[in-house]
Amino acid sequence: xxxxxxxxxxxxxxxxxxxxxxxxxxxxxxxxxxxxxxxxxxxxxxxxxxxxxxxxxxxxxxxxxxxxxxxxxxxxxxxxxxxxxxxxxxxxxxxxxxxxxxxxxxxxxxxxxxxxxxxxxxxxxxxxxxxxxxxxxxxxxxxxxxxxxxxxxxxxxxxxxxxxxxxxxxxxxxxxxxxxxxxxxxxxxxxxxxxxxxxxxxxxxxxxxxxxxxxxxxxxxxxxxxxxxxxxxxxxxxxxxxxxxxxxxxxxxxxxxxxxxxxxxxxxxxxxxxxxxxxxxxxxxxxxxxxxxxxxxxxxxxxxxxxxxxxxxxxxxxxxxxxxxxxxxxxxxxxxxxxxxxxxxxxxxxxxxxxxxxxxxx
Amino acid sequence: xxxxxxxxxxxxxxxxxxxxxxxxxxxxxxxxxxxxxxxxxxxxxxxxxxxxxxxxxxxxxxxxxxxxxxxxxxxxxxxxxxxxxxxxxxxxxxxxxxxxxxxxxxxxxxxxxxxxxxxxxxxxxxxxxxxxxxxxxxxxxxxxxxxxxxxxxxxxxxxxxxxxxxxxxxxxxxxxxxxxxxxxxxxxxxxxxxxxxxxxxxxxxxxxxxxxxxxxxxxxxxxxxxxxxxxxxxxxxxxxxxxxxxxxxxxxxxxxxxxxxxxxxxxxxxxxxxxxxxxxxxxxxxxxxxxxxxxxxxxxxxxxxxxxxxxxxxxxxxxxxxxxxxxxxxxxxxxxxxxxxxxxxxxxxxxxxxxxxxxxxxxx
Lengths: 362, 364
Description:
The structure holds two protein chains of two kinds. Chain A is built from 14 helices and two strands. By secondary structure, chain A is mainly α. Chain A has one domain: Orthogonal Bundle (ABC transporter involved in vitamin B12 uptake, BtuC). Chain A has a two-stranded antiparallel ribbon. The longest helix of chain A is centred in the middle third of the chain and has 30 residues. The two termini of chain A are 26 Å apart. In chain B, the strands form three sheets. Chain B has a seven-stranded mixed beta sheet, sandwiched between helices. In chain B, helix 5 runs parallel beside helix 6 and helix 7 packs parallel to helix 8. Chain B is globular. At the A-B interface, helix 1, helix 2, helix 3, helix 11 and helix 13 of A face helix 1, strand 2 and helix 3 of B.
């Protein structure tokens, strides 16, 4: 009898502290990454050094981390909020895209010419949040009153959103002066989100403080209000929630739509703050990355800014692997996946033990 | 946990910054590329040009590139990074980077910017492109001489660049068919369907299979991968390759490919930077400058056809390009450019029209 046949996995009486799973996750990710680098014939230490230098080595790089972290934080918050009610919003990508569509549509067609910047940009941002919420509405209704899995509906609507936005910038919304190249005209300057401090912070725009404000607000809402309490109760025990006569469908609707609005804000921020037009390159996975941001933060809105920054640093740092070491572009995503895998393994091992031999009795 | 993240960051930092190599007089050239360097098409052709540059200029040049930059906002980040690191010249190899590069050229007046396939220039930003449509004209001529009269085209983005290729191919095809004495439907020798993307291997395959299934006798393409040619081969329909010689990537049925040859241009541009003579120009050349080429012909192309096509190629090398020589008729038969006049470059670069013989429309 091989020893493996006696391998058992059993739950721990008490889970190991969160630091364990995070430490193990990061450690495993670094190890996995090192193995990949070694496989590509690059010294892992010099690869990580290049990444660190690329991500933290200059003010420009630091500002680009903040630029990347802004939408990541918002989609991370979106996933974390829904997860509190045990709802899996994997549709942030589509909601982000629709946020961008609504924001651009508002800026291009609704805003009166000559509108002053602050109200114009605020209105466009609000439209973006509405767009994200609207895209989450159908899955929310189906989940609340039809018991249809929101995992499926939110995911599938991502594809619809991408097709819709492509139709718009290839078709009716295409820039008439763009020689047929896909993309809308540039949005009016009044609708652009203000850059905070262009000399020092480059492309960092007003979306960042907004996102940083929303994180503690969400934490407060979930931890300190009746509404937040009811959301957590529903997440922990739907049976108890029904017994307490909480209106589960109404909460489902509200939570999923708010989650969609957060993702919509992320898209609106990208379009109004960075792209300044609707074009290819909006649906680049920031919605899916939000899942990782939320998981690494263990669903805690207060930790999400840090995990969003960490992921942003990973992406910006990974650029250097290409430019300095000539590694393929997919390395950033590979490392991201390793990070999530490592973290999930850590979570699992924090709650379970691996043992050989016979089960303990008593 | 937060402390751990900070620790991680600190640990990464402690690994030390990478020392920047600074050698005197070495030109630092950066390339920002649309797709991966082994995409079997557009970006791989640029990558071969980069390799040619490195080989030719050796230690006179330091080259770096970033691949898979689809979104212009990512391009902005990467290009600004290169400019800040003191790269002398930054090449951007897709149309979509144009506005970003124009903006950055104002922000970094000390950096030279060179943009492939666009139409904007600034005080320190030039552009460059090749007349691949000359090759498409010759490929069309060859196909016409061989009697293909119901061609299917997998087209990419509905902008002037692929449209030039479609029109030139169609005109070459009609010339060949007339010379070969084949009767054909003068309103429909080349049917166009749109991918609305530069690269979409699945879509390329689907469109090529659909065209072949509808009875088109030859599949041509201008997409960034050889997949439409490969799909045609799989259905026993011959194909015309684009960008690189697609027979290198498994499309053995391809009769000929139009091929990019960027290397000499990159060498010229970097040399000009080195000796201080670089100016923001609008470079747009064809066979006469060897920036576009034809691949070797498939064995099934008759020798006399090859001879005729190569004779036409020699004429182009000598500067006699008839691919857009009037009379040029629109799809509806109306004369767009009278006999004897050439379509002006400005119109070729910016106008969107399909010539008589093309079936299909420009999507709006």
